[in-house]
Recover the amino acids of this structure.
């Protein structure tokens, strides 16, 4: 099977659907969600203002007869989109101190002795194993998921008309069908 790369962009609504339906997954080697509320709000503002957003990279991995799509780059962005859709943000009770003297937000070597508090959390903490992943069901579990309400004043049109680019590496002939 030949590698193929699809370049394009998907709506925020599409990304949300893919996350909630577990059509794309987070590999275990990915770091926790590390954005604080300020970074989260800046990202949502950038989306609202139609500024450049770096692409999200998804790779297909074949295991036996199953093809699994993995988030290679963009977990912070996709998690922020999902949290915005849900009207939630992390409540700060599950903070873990990590030693980040070797990495900064851009994963560049720094060498200083700063430690950083991060959420020991990723978007998969929101998802229910039984598949109850509607906006309403997740909001009902928000405290259990380590989240609190946060209103960013967005409507359904924001998710339908806002895009994030994607260079997608395929081991199949065409990109996946959109939801619906």
């Amino acid at each position: 099977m030949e590698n193929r790369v699809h370049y394009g962009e998907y709506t925020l609504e599409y990304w949300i659907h893919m996350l909630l339906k577990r059509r794309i997954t987070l590999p275990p080697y990915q770091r926790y969600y590390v954005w604080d509320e300020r970074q989260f709000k800046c990202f949502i503002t950038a989306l609202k203002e139609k500024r450049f957003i770096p692409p999200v990279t998804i790779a297909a991995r074949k295991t036996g007869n199953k093809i699994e799509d993995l988030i290679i780059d963009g977990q912070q962005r996709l998690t922020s989109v999902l949290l915005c859709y849900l009207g939630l943000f992390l409540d700060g009770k599950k903070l873990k101190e990590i030693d980040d003297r070797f990495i900064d937000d851009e994963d560049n070597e720094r060498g200083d002795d700063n430690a950083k508090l991060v959420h020991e959390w990723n978007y998969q903490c929101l998802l229910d194993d039984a598949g109850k992943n509607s906006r309403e069901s997740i909001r009902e579990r928000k405290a259990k998921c380590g989240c609190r309400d946060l209103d960013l004043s967005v409507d359904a049109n924001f998710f339908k008309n806002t895009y994030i680019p994607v260079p997608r590496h395929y081991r199949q002939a065409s990109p996946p069908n959109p939801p619906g």
Observations:
- The first strand starts at residue 4 and ends at 11.
- The helical segments are 12-20, 37-48, 75-86, 135-140, 156-161.
- The CA atoms of residues 13 and 156 lie 9 Å apart.
- DSSP finds five helices and eight strands in the chain.
